[in-house]
Amino acid sequence: MLVVMDAGHSPQQLKEVVKRIEKMGFKAHVIPGANSTAVGVTGNAQPLEPSLFENLPGVKQAIPVSKPYKLSSRDFKHGDTVIKLKNGLEIGTDRLIVMAGPCAVENEEQTIRIARAVKKAGAHILRGGAFKPRTSPYAFQGLGVEGLKILAAARRETGLPVVTEAIDEASLEAVYEYADIIQIGARNMQNFSLLKEAGKLDKPVLLKRGMSATLDELLMSAEYILAEGNKQLMLCERGIRTFSNHTRNTLDLNAVPVIQKLSHLPIIVDPSHATGLRDKVVPLSRAAAAVGAHGLIIEVHDRPHEALCDGPQSLPPDQLKALLAQLKAMGKVLGFKL
Ligand code: PEP
Ligand code: MN
């Protein structure tokens, strides 16, 4: 239920609406808007009668929201969510944000070298995993906190904000301390206790779509984070599992316009994990920009044959640079900046 207030409502009337909602045992979310204020209701298992609220003074209308996700829905918030990082960079505007860097932080020299290269190529944010969720327990698991310290050093060196993954509640605490954006990976999209903890933090979160998750499930996972109070959330399409085996996953570009219609949250595309193949990353990055993604997250390595993780899908820095030049030209036609 969304309770829309009259344009001239008093603060007391708004308070009364919140009180009524809380008295019923539900949660009230005041949503200030440019033209009108609304109060979202969550926690009700059954649909509510609009008349429960429409008779209260100062209330214009009560609109039932049929979707199971509320705070992530456009019904609750019409305008786009824009996330502002500490260095002033905004995500969710007409600027296409490029996050780039190695799959994994391998050592300080490698990370700083690649960070410098992606900065020079024009990327806005450095990516790199310190905690790696690997399919095999024998594969490189990441450097952990040591990796986070290296990312912080790369940020000091380049000025690039850092996005890095938390894989459980223990690593979340450490990632919160060092990162500018906390990544929650595909394998953890439905780790609800992790989502709840991330929702209590005051740092932006990038939530990746699970490899077999529907978009409704992605939005329900987003809801876990938003419901705990963290509104600085962006989503990421990173490919889903299909019968097609020419690429590692199948990039579901439908997700971009579908999410943008259903939700106000920014949507980022990861063409690297979506395809697993270097030569597909450039064309699918262009495609993602063309369908209106707010950003890209791309794996880059200057010595991909030496990479400890995901070398075959990593772009060398010169290809990133060439891609960004193409995207810039595309943006002139399609109306986005880089
Ligand atoms: C990653 O971005 O490092 C990663 C592991 O991606 P995903 O969770 O999409 O597999
Ligand atoms: Mn990877």
Instruction: Domain count, please report it.
Output: 2
Q: What strand order characterises the main sheet?
A: 7-8-9-10-11-12-13-14
Straight-line distance between termini: 38 Å
Count of DSSP E strands? 14
Give the CATH level 1 class of the largest domain: Alpha Beta
Summed up, the helix count is 11
Strand content: 15-25%
- CATH architecture title of the largest domain: Alpha-Beta Barrel
Q: What structural class should be given to the helix and strand makeup?
A: alpha/beta
- Hetero groups: phosphoenolpyruvate, manganese (II) ion
Q: How is the quaternary structure best described?
A: single chain
Helical proportion, percent range: 25-40%
Overall geometry: elongated
Unreliable runs, pLDDT <50, ≥5 residues?
none
What name does CATH use for the topology of the largest domain?
TIM Barrel
Q: Please write the string of helix (H) and strand (E) elements.
A: EHEEHEEEEHEHEHEHEHEHEHHEH
Main sheet characteristics? 8 strands, parallel, barrel
Considering the protein shown, what is the CATH homologous superfamily of the largest domain? Aldolase class I
Q: Indicate the radius of gyration in whole angstroms.
A: 21 Å
The pLDDT mean sits at 96
How is this structure best described in words?
- With 338 residues, the protein is an alpha/beta fold.
- It folds into 2 domains: 2-63, Alpha-Beta Plaits, CATH 3.30.70.1140; 83-334, TIM Barrel (Alpha-Beta Barrel), CATH 3.20.20.
- The chain is 36% helix and 17% strand.
- It contains 11 helices and 14 strands.
- It has helices at residues 11-23, 51-54, 108-121, 145-158, 169-178, 192-199, 215-227, 255-262, 271-275, 278-290, 317-334; strands spanning 2-5, 27-31, 38-42, 59-63, 83-84, 90-91, 97-101, 125-127, 162-165, 181-184, 205-208, 233-237, 267-269, 295-299.
- Strands 7-8-9-10-11-12-13-14 form an 8-stranded parallel beta barrel, surrounded by 6 helices. Strands 2-3-1-4 form a 4-stranded antiparallel β-sheet.
- Helix 7 (215-227) links the parallel strand 11 and strand 12 (233-237).
- Helix 3 (108-121) packs parallel to helix 4, helix 4 (145-158) runs parallel beside helix 5 and helix 6 crosses helix 7.
- The longest helix has 18 residues, at 317-334.
- The model has no long low-confidence stretch (mean pLDDT 96).
- Bound molecules: phosphoenolpyruvate and manganese (II) ion.
- Residues 103, 129, 133, 165, 185-187, 208, 238, 270, 273 line the site of phosphoenolpyruvate (PEP).
